[in-house]
């Protein structure tokens, strides 16, 4: 993919707030509040942005504590540029940085949506359920839908 005729440039770093929000929604991911994005982006452990003719069209980030736990997030490519190996370039850049800087005992996770599963498997990620783990999530704006037992504080 690299070469003289390659119209795509991958650079290290996190995008600006509005670019982040546009890249997510253009790729079909959920939007995030600008205030939340402004808080999150400076804590990016490593990120990459893909540009086409100077315009950001894809990204990926690693977040985490820098030692024991990392998560790959926000991997997306504008639909007009999908199918050109850009997701692979993003994942290669992210995993290369993890291999270079993260401790060998670090746990790296991600959440794969639909067909993205096959992309992530190429970079060594496996279904957690096959390893007696389950992935879980909670959105903070949603009602937790649980009740505490009387013994809990």
Structure notes:
The chain has 153 residues and is an alpha+beta fold. The chain has 4 helices and 5 strands. The chain has a 5-stranded mixed β-sheet with strand order 1-2-3-4-5, with helices on both faces. The chain is globular. The N and C termini lie far apart (56 Å). The mean pLDDT is 90.
Structural class, by secondary structure, is alpha+beta
Residue ranges: pLDDT <50 for 5 or more in a row? none
Give the strand tally: 5
Rounded to the nearest angstrom, the radius of gyration is: 17 Å
Q: Report the helical percentage.
A: 25-40%
What global shape is seen? globular
* Strand fraction: 15-25%
The neighbouring-strand order within the major sheet is 1-2-3-4-5
Total helix count?
4
Average pLDDT confidence is 90
Order of helices and strands: EHHEEEHEH
The end-to-end distance, rounded to whole angstroms, is 56 Å
Oligomerization category of the chains in this entry: single chain
How is the main sheet built? Answer: 5 strands, mixed
Topology:
Blueprint: E1 8-12, H1 17-26, H2 34-40, E2 46-52, E3 55-64, E4 69-77, H3 86-101, E5 107-110, H4 116-121
List keywords for this structure.
single chain; 153 residues; alpha+beta; five-stranded mixed beta sheet; 4 helices; 5 strands; 25% helix
Task: Please summarize what this structure is.
The protein is an alpha+beta fold. The protein is 25% helix and 23% strand.
